[in-house]
Amino acid sequence: MAGVLIDPTRAPVAFGRRAVPQLFEELQRPETGRRRRALASLCDLVHDPERLYQTVNGGFLEQLKVLLTDEDPSLRAKTCDLLHLLTAHSVGRQALLSSSILPPLSQLLNDSSSSCRRNVHQVLNRLAQLPAGADALLTLVPKLMLKLREEEEEEEEVQVLLLSTLSCCSRLDALPALASDGVSLLQRKLSHRSTNVRREAAAAMMALSVPEDGKRQVCEEAVLPVLVDLLQDEDVEVQANAAGVIMYTVVITTGKQQCLDLDVVPVLLHLASKKKEEEEEEDVERRRRRKALVMYSLRALTALAEAPDGRRLLLEQLPLLVERSEAAEEDRDIRRAALTAVRVVTWTP
User: Fold this and answer.
1) Cα radius of gyration (the chain)
2) Tens-digit pLDDT profile for residues 192-217
3) Sign of the alpha-carbon torsion through 181, 233, 164, 152
4) Minimal CA–CA distance to 272: which of 307, 222, 319, 209?
5) Are the CB atoms for 76 and 108 separated by under 8 Å?
6) Closest Cα to residue 113, out of 71, 150, 65, 73?
7) What is the second-level CATH architecture of the domain 6-128?
8) pTM for the complete prediction?
9) pLDDT by residue (tens digit) across 140-156?
10) What is the C-alpha separation between 306 and 251, in angstroms, rounded?
């Protein structure tokens, strides 16, 4: 028996396991209002893991694919909202990746409704958190890069989601983004007024700087001066991501020379020699980010020490690195990285 309709924006919900099938029957009705109310009720129900499992394993996803092309923008947006809720659980993400829903979903990246576009980005971003999801989205990277070019005026949340998705995909395979002018497009976001946008842009740039072609493009596009500025950003994770790009880029000779010309060694030394006692009051997550910043800085310094000018500068500041490598209370990974830097700086043929 159907329950009593209390909220006029929701469809009445049947009892027990009949609830989900009944609402999907409502979605086949021609009346837009009935379908909208059914979607709203489904969004409420799938917070229950049992109802979510029933939704993704009951053969209902094909009906949602039809709704993604509905003429009513509110229906399209609400359908994407439901998909976003489904991707909150592993079983939902796997079901979406196994379905044929990604192509019609990606078409809504250009939807006229801003809420629909935002919901699409939320779905794609959750899928990209899985390696299988990032792999499935690699074919969409050129389109996502095009959106990055177009969405200068898009709301901050959408830009952050887009950059995060690109970062996840590029960590798996950076070549599609590099082939789509990724370094140049991301560079524009590195100076964004929003800390969140800068953080995600720097993370995506770090993924692109791993391959040889990415390192070369970072040098050619004059990205390093912007990154050196970001080493002094107010946000620790922005600093860490910027240091990560520098760490990868200084592997090549051009990267070393550009960074030395930018006088980056003193900045990296300051970041790498931050005392442990200054971090005691930080929470666990902030300590994790701080550790990444120190590790990336030490590794970048190690690579710079391979250049004669870099070694000369670091020999003058060797006690700082030695102190970090010998501190008994220091994190083991940081001690090891500092010791490697000392060995490279002091190496003689």
Assistant:
1) 25
2) 999 999 999 999 999 999 999 999 99
3) negative
4) 319
5) yes
6) 73
7) Alpha Horseshoe (1.25)
8) 0.89
9) 999 999 998 876 666 88
10) 9
Please state, in angstroms and as integers, the Cα–Cα distance from residue 285 to each residue in 279, 289, 292, following that order.
12, 6, 11
Half-sphere exposure of 4 toward its Cβ, with a 13 Å CA cutoff?
1
- Closest to 42 (Cα-Cα) out of 80, 69, 72: 80
Residue 276 burial class via C-beta count within 10 angstroms: exposed 0-12, middle 13-18, buried 19 and up: middle
Our separate counts of H helices and E strands in the chain read: 23, 0
* Residue corresponding to tokens 């019609």: 104
Residue for token digits 């970090």?
324
- The token duo for 221 is 């596009």
Contacts 24+ apart (CB under 8 A), 186-194: 186/148, 187/221, 187/223, 187/226, 189/148, 189/159, 189/163, 190/223, 190/226, 190/227, 190/230, 191/226, 192/159, 194/156, 194/159, 194/160
Length of the chain equals 349
